[in-house]
What we know:
Layout lengths: L4 H8 L20 E7 L7 E6 L22 H19 L9 E2 L2 E6 L2 E7 L4 E7 L4 E3 L16 E3 L3 E7 L2 E9 L13 E10 L8 E3 L5 H13 L4 H31 L3
Antiparallel strand pairs: 1-2, 3-4, 4-5, 5-6, 6-9, 7-8, 9-10, 10-11, 11-12
Helix pairs in contact: 2-4
Amino acid sequence: MIRNVRFLRWAAGKSFTTGKSTTTTAAVSLSQWNAGIIAQPSSGIATCSIKPISSGLNAKHGAGFSIAHRQIHTKGERELVEFLAEEIVAEKKASPSGTIPTSLNGFAITCNKADVELTKSSEREKITISFNVNHTVDMEGEEAEATENKPEFSAMKSRPQFEVDIVRGGTTLSFTCSYLPGEAQEGEYNDVFGIDEVTIFQGEWNDKVYAVAGDVLDGYLYDLLMNFLEEKGISNEFAEKMSDFASAYEHAKYVELLEAISKFTVEKK
């Protein structure tokens, strides 16, 4: 996503739009669809239900962003709605050209507003990865300079902290993980994410459960735990794909928020 377009467009004194290609695996274009509520198909696997976004604006806005003045009570409201009308169009054009999948590397994806959960089960264990997309976006790479001749913008990427729970019987081995800053240089191998905390408990977690921070673990033990996660499918490659998914989903929720604010502003009091 390229939400920083908002500030840079204002600072440059003119409108720019751009896009970002994201490679994911499903068949519904994110520029045409918006993530919404949970669907529970007959198979029993919950997936992210996505609903269509109209290509134009709300009928209340009309063509050319005209506003029904009888529904606008103040100058501030009118300016807000006019800006939102243009911003919504720009954000939809800037939506990743990829798609929002309902599964990722064998993990079924369930979405509930800002919460996302990925699950995979076998006869031996159940693995659950959970995260929240709120406040998870940051600039990808160095911020590009916007000029009249070079309207380029850095993409925004969601890199949420995530929990990994591996449940066997009534026992849960739980990891708290975060994405690491920086990118691997050519010829180097860097982990995409790291372990912040490890704990194990019976039944439900509570504040009395002991946990150890990842940065005080024995170095060899830390590496073994990272290998353990990789064997469970939570590898660097998987983490990158999960970040791509989170970015696309967060952007869809952002556009949904803009539309809700616009609708709230123009509704009759």
